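Reposting from the mailing list since nobody answered there.

I have sequence plus structure tokens for a pair of proteins and want to know whether others read the tokens the same way I do. The first protein:
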Amino acid sequence: MLALLALTASALSACTPTPEPTPTPTAAFASEAEAFAAAEEVYRAYNDAGNARRNGQSDPNPQDFLIGTALEGDIDALNRLETAGLHLVGHVEVASFTPVSAKLEHGDVQVEAVVCLDATETQVIDEDGTDVTPSNRVPVVAQAISFIGVDSELLISMEDSAKEEPCDRG
């Protein structure tokens, strides 16, 4: 359930996938620091879109920031929640964004980071409107995030539980 909650922190309703863009070379960043800053900006915008979706807004769409397995995972998580008669409410905060690596060669941009998400302000709600959030849920989770360059932007290509969880669980 924790993995489902972490992967669907920005999910509320099932959506049909938009056609997946084909990765094309992206103008290389001048430095790793610039690439990491751009990746953090993309992730924070994605998280804001997820918070908006949980509050019933259709724009911006969190799936606009996703590609590949990240997009597939979001769609799958939304479908699983719907099938289980559950939805998420509340606000997820990006507690930290930690750069891991960046590949900036020949227009091929790949960025890796670990993001700590604070989900203390979210709840899992069932069809009757009852809060069914597991009492033993870890409030702050670490997510390993991969970004790739597509056209002139970075998209999230993978989001999964981080193997090592460096997040403060205070």
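The second protein, same order (residues first, tokens after):
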Amino acid sequence: MKVCIVGAGAIGGFLGVRLARLAEADLRVTALARDATLAALREHGWRMQTADGLLQAPAATADAASPADIAALGAQDLVIIAVKSQSLGAVAPSIAPLLGPDTVVLPAMNGVPWWFDARPLESVDPGGRIAAAIPQRHVLGCVVHASTSTAEPGLVVHKMGQGLIIGEPEGGVSDRARRVVALLAQAGFNATLSERIRYDIWYKLWGNMTTNPVSAMTGATADRVLDDPLVAAFCISAMHEAAAIGRCIGCAIDETPEDRHKVTRKLGAFKTSMLQDAEAGRPMEIDALVSAVREIGQRVGVATPNIDALLGLTRLFARTHGLYPDA
């Protein structure tokens, strides 16, 4: 079985190191990476620091900047996309040579994916270019429940969580989804099969759509965001709007925002992924987490004044700091 992981950052490394450690002679895992990450993988292999010590595995690599390297890999059985959503538009054309008739594409990414709506979402897939490069028939939906970061290129730090939820975009259960879940479970992940992956994606988004950008703008850990009653009330109002959108698209959420905040509090004083990006001077993942929610709301006729304010403030903050493109 041939597996290619596109992007070997925090999530790509989290997945790559455990898959590469599988003692199956017929499983080949290749990292498609570039620059310092590619150099680190070639020198040290896969590396992940865990509470139990350092996990390592040899890494087969290909240069993401080299069309010849990518073409040489040929069609893969499984392509795991682990780049940030704002980078996928540039990366998607390079994935095409990896796709055979039966290749499965698993986007292990935050927020609303490009395939989520029947029509391309301009906020995450302008002009439908990603959908053209990666047809939906290849795609399995994925939700990652794990906290990871990168201490340096090629070195992942795993803090908590091993959860992966896998499912068909159209719902139901398929043999290919079962096979992917079985592979991930064998690698040590808490992998589960979902018959409603769109709901699972929306539910996770509902929980982090507010805390991520608010933490990035303020520099506060998630616990401090929720400890401020005015900020928490603003987040709750935005979550009510997202829940109303969810009811219109078949992703109704039964919990209250207050219930969801209780779950977030159990995670303690953690830095959200968007805060980590802001502190590191990396582009912020605004569109998949906030812009897409606003766009879907407009399509279904749900007013989103609080989400609009959240998007405007976050986007302005990011543009001011060079972390989001100017209009």
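Reply #1 (J.P.):
I read it the same way you do. Residues 74 and 98 are 5 Å apart (CA to CA).
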